[in-house]
Amino acid sequence: MADETKTAEKTETEAPERGNAPAMARPMILGRKVGMLQHFKADGSSVAATVIAAEANVVTQVRTPARDGYAAVQLGFGKVTKGALSKAETGHLKGLPALRHLREVRLEDSDGFTPGQEIGVDRFAPGDKVHVTGMSKGKGFMGPVHLHHFTTGPRSHGSDHYRRQGSVGAGTTPGRVLKGLRMASHQGADRVTVKNLEILRSDPERALLIVQGAVPGGRNGIVMVVARPLTRTIAPPPARPAPKREAPSATAPKPKAEPRPLPTAPAGQVAVIGTDGTVTGSVALPGALTTTKTRAGVLFQVLDTARSNAHLGTAATKTRGDVAGGGAKPWAQKGTGRARAGSTRSPLWRHGGVAFGPNGRRYRRRIPEKMRRAAFAEAFAARASDGRVLVFEGFSSNGDGARTKTFVDWLSKIGDTGRALLVTPQLDETAARATANHRGLSVRSVSALRTVDVITHDTVLVHRDALEALAARATSGGSA
């Protein structure tokens, strides 16, 4: 009975004080990488995130400057059975849970820490910046060709130095391998720290931390999460006095100009615009330009063909016969111990030709003449039925020649034309130069007019002398 009382008293005296550890200037915790997921923020954006399982860390040892020369605490993580520990580890953790992983972290002051205290994820809040340290994934042993991009050796005539290191230095002088020589080595499995990661979520109930971005190591790897230190303090800018705003003037705002509708004409006719931009009458359109017959798929075929013809294949490579030079052999055919080489423009050589390289694809397609005429007539008739076709007699230059401003003023007097297309009997270079800087105005001659131009413009203005030529286009063909 006395022995049992002594044993109980000994256990009570050796049991450490349990509870939460005091606050730390830089919170830190050991955890296990669970994996990665896609995290959605409050604004709806998604980011890659890593889930870290950080069960409560236990303080297993406290170091003080008086005894050890520095201040630090040893944290334990990962509870296991006592049979999984060695006798030395069991003795070190006497009176504490059996823990697999131990890490020592230095502090400015270790006062207040005692063995047995716990540190949880509640010390981290969303928005905190942390540094995560862990062991990176092992990449295995890499040779010099893979690791340092060394040039490979010859592949023919029994060569055994295809992917080897090669010379590592002279034999007599200096007679040794110089430090820093790039050689084959093992890659990965290094201690890596990823800095300035943001805490997206802290879940104390499930002991989880969700960190934005990737952390070192693979699944179930042990990582150390440390809060980022405060390196500098940014003083808030001084408050600026509010600018004095003048009282709004009593004048009424300028009314917004309403778009003017286009002039109209009786059915089967279009309005005629004079040189000053006013309506002078109306004229009947030729029957070929007012057809109402529609054919399914005709406009689509013409538009698809036009887009295909505008696609240029620009890829071009040269074969060994197209590359200049390489007429002489780089070395003698026999007696050198090397493979025969007839030219330095072989695909095996640098700056040589390309074997089976791309030489540009031809995207040009052809469309039947009858389909092209039908599509042009249908597109023009659709514009006319919507009231977006007008006839003009000419331009008024006011004696200063054709200028961009002249055309802009002329169009503004007509109405809201939107993106306008001017069709002239012949190419008018003066008008083309004057309208080149205006995005909403284009000039085409009858021979250069395409179905795509009629479809992509809002209003078509045709010169009176070009009506018959357009009717001929709709009946005798032309370019699509």
Question: Please, could you describe this protein's structure?
Answer:
- The protein has 480 residues and is α+β, with helices and mostly antiparallel strands.
- Among the domains are: 15-138 and 190-227, Elongation Factor Tu (Ef-tu), domain 3 (Beta Barrel); 269-309 and 364-476, Ribosomal Protein L4, Chain: A (3-Layer(aba) Sandwich).
- Helices cover 19% and strands 24% of the residues.
- The strands form four sheets. A six-stranded antiparallel β-barrel has the order 2-3-12-11-8-13.
- α6 crosses α10 (467-476).
- The longest helix is centred in the last third of the chain and has 17 residues, at 369-385.
The strand line-up of the biggest sheet is 2-3-12-11-8-13
Structure annotation, total helices = 10
- Overall mean pLDDT score? 85
Q: Kindly name the structural category.
A: alpha+beta
Flag low-confidence runs: 1-17
Q: Sheet with the most strands?
A: 6 strands, antiparallel, barrel
Distance between the termini: 112 Å
* Secondary-structure element pattern, one letter each: HEEEEHEHEEEEHEEEEEEHHEHEHEHEH
Examine the coordinates and then state which fold CATH places here, giving the name of the CATH topology of the domain at 15-138 and 190-227: Elongation Factor Tu (Ef-tu), domain 3
Identify the CATH homologous superfamily of the domain at 15-138 and 190-227.
Answer: Translation factors
Percent of residues in beta strands? 15-25%
